[in-house]
Recover the amino acids of this structure.
C-alpha cells in the first residue's frame, strides 16, 4: 500500500495560479511553486496566468526561476476572457510550453516608466532596447516568433489565442486543464539538466496554494487598497489627536500607515500626491484642535482631492486607484467635516445653560425689596441670590436677569 501511495505522489502535476499584478509577493509564490514541484517530483508545473502586467524586477525573478528549473514549466493563459499583457508576455515566452484558452489575448509589452514620469527620448530608447533584447533572447531560446515578440515591446501589438498559435507565439490552445494535459502528453522539453519527455495524460493534479504571507502582501500591493490603508491610517491618527488616550485609533492608524508605506515601496508613487494628502490631514488635525469653522477643513478637502488624483504616478490602468474609491473618500471626509462644523455653529448659537451666561435672561421672584442703592434677594432656579437694580422692585414681583457681577445679579422689573 505504501509503495502505491509513493507512486501516486510521484506521478502527479503541480498547478499554480497567478492572477493579477506581477509584483514581489506573486514572484515569491511562483518561485516557491517551482521549487516545490522540483522537490515533490512533479511531472511538470502548470502556471495558470491572467495578468495585466507588473513590475520588471518581479518579472525577471520569475523568468530566471523558470529558465533554470529542473522541472518543465507550462504557462497556461486561462480562463476564457483572461489576458496576458506586459510582464505576462515575457513570462509566457520564457516557459517550456505556452498555451492559451480560446477567448484570451496576449501582447502589449511596451515598457512603462515606473514613476509615470515622461522619459527623455534617449532614456526611453535605452529602456525599450533593453526590453527588446531581453524578450528576443528568451523567445529565440524557446524557438518562438522573435519578430512578433519585438513588435509586442516596440509597438504594443497584441494577438488573440488563435492568432498567437498561427504566429508561433504559443505552442497550443486548450479549452480547459484536462484538455491541456491530454495535448501536452508526450511532448519533449529542453531543461538545464537535459531533454525530458513529459507524461501528463490521466495524471492527478495538485494545487499549490498561496501562503497567508504571500496572499496578504499580494493584496495590499493593490493601488486602491494601499490608498484606503493610507486614508484609514490618517483617520486613526486624527482620532487619537482629538481623543488623547483612546489608544485603539492610534494603534490602528499606525499599523495602517506602515502597511500603506510598504505598498508604496512596490507601487509607482508620486510623492507630490503623498505630500498633498499629508498636508490635508495636517489641516484636518488643526481644524479638530483649533476650530476655524471652515477654512482649514475646506483647504484639507481640496488638498486631499488633488493628492488622491496625483498619488499613483503611472499611466498603466492596472496601477491606477479606483476613481469611485477616491470620490467616496473625499465625499465621506467632506461630509464629516461639514457635519462637525454644523454642530459647532449650532452650539455657538445655542443659549448657554450653565455659568454666568446661563443665568442671563432667567426669570426670578423678589423676596426682599430692591432699591437703587440697596440690594435685595431674589429666588431664582431654586436658589437665593443677592440682587440689585436701578429701580424699586417690591416683594413677589417678577424680575429678569440682565447681568451677573460675581455673585450679585443685576435685574430689571419684568413687564406684565
Amino acid at each position: 500500500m505504501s509503495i502505491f501511495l509513493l507512486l501516486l505522489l510521484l506521478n502527479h502535476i503541480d498547478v499554480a495560479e497567478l492572477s493579477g499584478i506581477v509584483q514581489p509577493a506573486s514572484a515569491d509564490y511562483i518561485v516557491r511553486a517551482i521549487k516545490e514541484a522540483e522537490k515533490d517530483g512533479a511531472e511538470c508545473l502548470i502556471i495558470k496566468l491572467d495578468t495585466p502586467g507588473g513590475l520588471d524586477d518581479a518579472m525577471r525573478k520569475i523568468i530566471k526561476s523558470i529558465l533554470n528549473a529542473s522541472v518543465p514549466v507550462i504557462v497556461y493563459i486561462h480562463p476564457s476572457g483572461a489576458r496576458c499583457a506586459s510582464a505576462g508576455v515575457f513570462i509566457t515566452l520564457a516557459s517550456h510550453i505556452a498555451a492559451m484558452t480560446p477567448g484570451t489575448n496576449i501582447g502589449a509589452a511596451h515598457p512603462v516608466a515606473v514613476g509615470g514620469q515622461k522619459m527623455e527620448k534617449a532614456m526611453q530608447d535605452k529602456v525599450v532596447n533593453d526590453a527588446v533584447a531581453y524578450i528576443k533572447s528568451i523567445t529565440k531560446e524557446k524557438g518562438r516568433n522573435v519578430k512578433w515578440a519585438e513588435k509586442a515591446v516596440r509597438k504594443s501589438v497584441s494577438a488573440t489565442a488563435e492568432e498567437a498559435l498561427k504566429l508561433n507565439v504559443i505552442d497550443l490552445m486548450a479549452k480547459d486543464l484536462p484538455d491541456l494535459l491530454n495535448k501536452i502528453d508526450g511532448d519533449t522539453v529542453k531543461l538545464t539538466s537535459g531533454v525530458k519527455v513529459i507524461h501528463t495524460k490521466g495524471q492527478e493534479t495538485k494545487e499549490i496554494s498561496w501562503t497567508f504571507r504571500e496572499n496578504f502582501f499580494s493584496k495590499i500591493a493593490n493601488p486602491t487598497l494601499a490608498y484606503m490603508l493610507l486614508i484609514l491610517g490618517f483617520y486613526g491618527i486624527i482620532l487619537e489627536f482629538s481623543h488623547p488616550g483612546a489608544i485603539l485609533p492610534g494603534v490602528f492608524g499606525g499599523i495602517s500607515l506602515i502597511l500603506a508605506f510598504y505598498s508604496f515601496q512596490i507601487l509607482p508613487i508620486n510623492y507630490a500626491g503623498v505630500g498633498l494628502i499629508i498636508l490635508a490631514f495636517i489641516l484636518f488635525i488643526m481644524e479638530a484642535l483649533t476650530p476655524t469653522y471652515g477654512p482649514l477643513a475646506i483647504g484639507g478637502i481640496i488638498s486631499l482631492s488633488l493628492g488622491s488624483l496625483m498619488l499613483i504616478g503611472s499611466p498603466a490602468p492596472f496601477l491606477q486607484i479606483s476613481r469611485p474609491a477616491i470620490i467616496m473618500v473625499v465625499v465621506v471626509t467632506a461630509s464629516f467635516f461639514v457635519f462637525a462644523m454644523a454642530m459647532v455653529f449650532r452650539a455657538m448659537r445655542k443659549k448657554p445653560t450653565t455659568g454666568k451666561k446661563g443665568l442671563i435672561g432667567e426669570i426670578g421672584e423678589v423676596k426682599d425689596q430692591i432699591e437703587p442703592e440697596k440690594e435685595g434677594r431674589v429666588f431664582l432656579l431654586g436658589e437665593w441670590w443677592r440682587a440689585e437694580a436701578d429701580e424699586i422692585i417690591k416683594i413677589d414681583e417678577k424680575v429678569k436677569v440682565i447681568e451677573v457681577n460675581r455673585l450679585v445679579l443685576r435685574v430689571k422689573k419684568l413687564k406684565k
Observations:
- The chain has a mean pLDDT of 85.
- The CA atoms of residues 356 and 405 lie 9 Å apart.
- DSSP finds 15 helices and 16 strands in the chain.
